[in-house]
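Section 5.1 Outputs to date
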Amino acid sequence: MSQQWEYHTIETRAPKGQCFDIVVGANTTSEASARMTFWYKNQHAIMAEVQPWLDDGWHPIGDIGPGSLILTTSAEHSRGCLATLFGISALGFNWWLIGIDIRLRRPLR
């Protein structure tokens, strides 16, 4: 008999009309450096959110780290946020909106 699993995803996105988790600056010129910068600054807060799930028997599917971050530069977000971001871009900075997508599973109980 094969193992049956239940799944859960921890997701965090900027609510419509609001900005958060914006990484700007000369050291964030690439997606990889933006991921590393964000993870370095927010690792403890992210792990504090994930740890109760791990303690309850959930196992990560894939990376819990910079690879579990979602970077967006799309105009899909909000106008208020984008007005700020376009101003930052006009000054020569790179910007990213960052979300978290951590997938977990555990044996079905």
